[in-house]
Amino acid sequence: MSRQELRDQCKEMGIPFTVKNTNNELSHKIQLKKMSMETKEGNITIEQITEWKKKFKTDKLHKLTVKDKDGNPIVGYLKPPGREIKATALSMYSQNKILECGEFIRDNCWLGGDERLKMSGDIADTAAIQASGIIKFLEAELGEV
Questions:
Q1: Cα separation of 136 and 119, whole Å?
Q2: What is the mean pLDDT of residues 79-99?
Q3: Is the Cα torsion angle 103, 83, 135, 115 positive or negative in sign?
Q4: DSSP state, 41?
């Protein structure tokens, strides 16, 4: 594709660019925009997962799967929680607000996937409970000597 064709495609998709952008840069911007649009529709590709891993500097993401009443999987993706998210979630957890804790983690770590995991009654509640399991601790002991 020519640079002008790439620029025209960027204009159509509402992607900002400069005259200094190379063909590779323009193609990358178009690819990212397409992945973003697909993500909002719940279509997550391997390329999108790779891009998220690069963006958040991690080798692991969390795949959250809930089955609907007919047994069909509903999938979403979460990034690992940062320290602030963990602190707030643990505060809720210590107050026995398990559902709220999971909702907080799910909503603040959400990358993309099927929006029913965030909005649809039992599906959203189940997703929240599962999301609360993201925070893991190593086995430890505290004692006196």
A1: 25
A2: 91
A3: positive
A4: T
Q: Is the dihedral of CA 12, 17, 21, 24 positive or negative?
A: negative
Q: How far apart are CA 54 and CA 144, in angstroms?
A: 43
**Structure token pair of residue 125:** 């509640």
Question: Rounded CA gap, 47 and 35, in Å?
Answer: 8
The pLDDT value given to residue 71: 85
Which CA distances in Å does 80 have to 19, 60, 70, 77? Answer: 37, 8, 30, 10
What letter represents residue 137's amino acid? F
Question: In what order do the strands lie in the sheet containing 110-113?
Answer: 62-67, 73-78, 110-113
Contacts of the segment 19-28: beta carbons below 8 A, 24+ positions apart: 27/1
Q: Where do the domains of the chain lie? A: 3-40, 53-134
Q: What is the pLDDT of residues 35-68, one digit of tens each?
A: 666 655 567 888 889 989 999 999 999 999 998 8
Neighbours of 72 (CB within 10 A): 8
* CA separation for the pair 94, 90 (Å, rounded): 6
